[in-house]
Amino acid sequence: MRQILNNYKVTAGIAAVLLLLLSPSVYAIGLGELMDIARAQKDAQKAYVDETKAFERVKSAIDKGAIKKGDPKKSIGDRYGEPVVSIIDANTKREKWIYKPASSSFFAGVKVYLYFNKDDKLDEVKMVE
User: Fold this and answer.
1) pLDDT score at 77
2) Order of strands, sheet of 111-116, starting from the edge strand that comes earlier in the sequence
C-alpha cells in the first residue's frame, strides 16, 4: 500500500510540474487567439464603416441625380465604392449591385439596388426602405 501511495505522489508531482511548465505556453496560445479575435473584430468594424460610407455616397448621388441610367458600371464602382454584394440574375443576365448601411440587413432596412445590363451600363435604380 505504501508503494502505491509513493507512486501516486511521484506521478501527481510530475503532473503538477508539467502543468506549471506548460501553463505559460497555454497562456501564450490563448493570448494569441484573443489578439486574432480582436484584429478580426477591428477588420469587421472597418468593413461596416466602409459599407455604410459607400451606401451614403451612392444614395446621395442618386438624390442629386448624379447616378443615372446608362452610366458605366466601372465608373460607378470607382466613384462611389464597391457594393456589399453583386449578383447576376440567371434569367435576365442583369447584374444587381446592393448597397446598404451596416445597420440594415439583406432582409430588412434601407438598401439601394443598381441593375446593370449585359453591356455593363446602369439599367435601373431601386431604393428599398
Assistant:
1) 95
2) 85-88, 95-99, 111-116, 122-128
